[in-house]
Amino acid sequence: MLSEVVTSAMVSGVLDEIVGLLPVIIPASISFIAVRKGLSFLISSLRSA
Predict the structure, then answer these.
(1) Residues 10-31: tens digit of each pLDDT
(2) Alpha helical stretches, state H, 1-49
(3) What pTM does this model have?
(4) Spatial separation of the C-alpha atoms in residues 10 and 22, rounded to whole Å
């Protein structure tokens, strides 16, 4: 039933959008992880001082 509704053009469009968003998502996620680790390090340094 689903194969009647979904066409290859729709799947191709979704895949193109996902590939187009990768250059934005990857640096944003790396930056988010770096900020979290930096804040964690700063808080642990302040607690031990």
Answers:
(1) 889 999 999 999 999 999 999 9
(2) 2-5, 8-48
(3) 0.66
(4) 19
